[in-house]
Every structure is written in structure tokens, then in C-alpha cells.
Amino acid sequence: MSPDRPVGALFRRFRDRLAADGGVPAESGSRATGVGPGRTDSGAHEARLAPHPPRDTAPTTGRRRRGGKGGGEQLNVPPAEFTSYYGRPVLKPPVWKWDIAAYLFTGGLAAGSSMLAAGGQLTGRPALRRAGRVTSLAAVSASAYFLINDLGRPSRFHHMLRVAKVTSPMSVGTWILSAFGPAAGLAAIAEVAPRLPERGLLGLGRRLLPPTGHAAGLVAAVTAPALATYTGVLLADTAVPSWHEAYPELPVIFAGSALASGAGVGLLAAPPGQAGPARRMAVAGAALELWGAHRVENRLGLLSEPYADGTPGKLLRAGRALTAAGVAGALVGRRSRLLSAASGGALLSAAVCTRFGIFHGGVASARDPKYTVVPQRERAARRA
């Protein structure tokens, strides 16, 4: 095509665009860019190819890329952002509602009360034994209700008894609850034996129930530690970051909370003269619970944040304060029925706050993607 031949405006714009991109011959490029013959506008071309930092992040200085002649170019690395697709969590938060948190509390209360009843039985304290047995039956019944309510249909609990899977905390817990419940119920029913008539069929029950109840109470007490701690293992066995990382501490916290709640029942129901085992249980349970709570709030690094902030942090701080107040009142008020009862109420309230705080802390860690992404990157960096 002759350079003097007129061309259309569309072709002229196409030729100018080629000249600007460096895709035309040297002499054409010199006319388009104003540089001398035999050269191209390499500076403008390289400027267009240079990397640009994101508009919404400030670039940070990275190390130079080695290799090649004349050194290397500077790399700009934007800071890490912990986001997910469409702002959705990386993990699906637990679908459990408040009834599972209540199940955690009532299961621990049933276990602690049965141990309190066994202590009263072995040391000859009938008021302590009676309070522990009745509370244990009421708590395990409420615990079964909350569990079945979460499952949706009672038949699902029955279906879980078809197999016994040792590697499944839920399966093991179902069998523990099934073994503990009848023993606790039989021990509680034995408390009505003195009210039965002395003759006839009911008189036979009056004679047989006390020894049967003693044996059942000991069976429930032996099963109680497993009932108190398996829920901690159950939470730690999930993928929820703050639950999974706290697997050594959660069973300890739940064991201490169970002992403290059982001690609270004894301090509330028994006279101060018979509350000696309850006071000792309160001291032991508070020590375990406070040690475990301190560990989960300080040992886990980033994953300790959900236990210290927001609603979980308020609940756990209230639990610690109530536990300390309950133990102090139990030790000081050895001869005061009113102070012992107040200490027992404080210990029960502390157990509620601790269980709900642990529950809500795990749910909060599953909703924020940084609690999943950052620990994974740290583990990958340590392996590298």
C-alpha cells in the first residue's frame, strides 16, 4: 500500500495503536514516538509491563530477584488479607444451639452429684448422699432430653446404640450415658425405701432397695469421671480451631467444672456439719477448672482470642470470679448455713458460665477465617 494513499480513520487509529505498543517497524515507530531511526520506545514499553501494586493495599518492600544481568527488579508484596470467597467462613460453624451447651452443663452436674453421693454414702452422711442422688437423676434426665432434642428424633439415640465405635467420642458418650443413667436412677429410687410399708410386696422393696441403691450409687460414681470428661473430648475431636487446639485442657476444665458443680449441690442441700466432702470437692474442682481456663486463654496463641473477647470472654471471666468466690465462701463459712448455701449457688453459676463460655468461644473461632488460615500457614512454615 502506498504511504501517500489516503486511508480511513479506522485504519489510522489501528496504525497509531500499533505504534504505541511497539508493534510497528522502527521508522514508523520513530514517527509515532519521536525517537531516532532504528530505535523503539523501550522505556515506555517497559513501564507498561512493570508490575503495579493493588489499588487497595500499600506495597511492601521485598527482596530483589537474583539472576540475570544488571541485578534484579524490586518485588512488591501486598500484606496478607484473611478473607474467603464472598466473605463466607472457611469452616461451617457448628449447627449446635444452646441446648448442647446446656447438655454440657447438666452432664457435668450429674457426674459431680453422683460422686458427691458416693462420698456421702461411704462416710455416713445421709443428707449429702440423698442430695447427690436426687440431683444426679434430675440432671441426667435433663441431659438426655437436651441431647435427644438436638438429635431431632428420639429414635436417633436408639440407633446410636446399634454399634460401639471406640474411635468415636459420640458413640462412646452414648454408651456412657446409657450405663450411667439407670445406675443413677436406681440409686435415687432407693432413697424412697424408708417411706414404703414394712409388709407385703412393698415391704420386700423396702428391704431390697437400700443395698441395691448402694451398689448402683457406686457404679454411677465409677462411671461419672467418663461422663464428665467425654464431652471435652467430643468438642476437641471437631475441626473447630479453638476447640481442636485445646484438646489437652478441655477434659480437665470439664472435670473440674463437674466437681465444683457437685460440690455446689452439697453446700446448698446439706447442713454444714455434713458438707466436709463437698468443701474438699470444691477446692479440687476449682483448682482443675481455673488451671485449665488459664491455659486455654494463654497457651493457644491466636486461638486463645475467642476465649478472651466478646461474650465468651465475659462468661469465662464471670466463671472464674464465681468459682473463686464459691471456694472462699465454702472454706470460710464452715459453720454458717447461709454462707455455705451462697457458696454452693456461686459454684453452680460458675459451672454454667464456664460451659457456655467454652461453647461460644469455639463457635466464634469457626466463624472467623483467620483462626483457620493463620495456624495452617504457621504449621506449613514450621514443616518447611
Describe the structure.
Helices cover 69% and strands 1% of the residues. It is elongated. The chain has a two-stranded antiparallel ribbon with strand order 1-2. 38% of the residues are buried. The longest helix has 37 residues, at 200-236. The protein has helices at residues 9-21, 26-33, 42-49, 98-122, 126-151, 154-160, 169-189, 200-236, 241-244, 250-269, 276-298, 305-308, 310-332, 337-367, 370-383, and strands at residues 60-61, 76-77. Mean pLDDT is 81; it is low at 24-70. The chain has one domain: Formate dehydrogenase/DMSO reductase fold (Up-down Bundle). The protein has 384 residues and is mainly alpha-helical.
Summary keywords:
384 residues, mainly alpha, Formate dehydrogenase/DMSO reductase fold, two-stranded antiparallel sheet, 2 strands, 1% strand
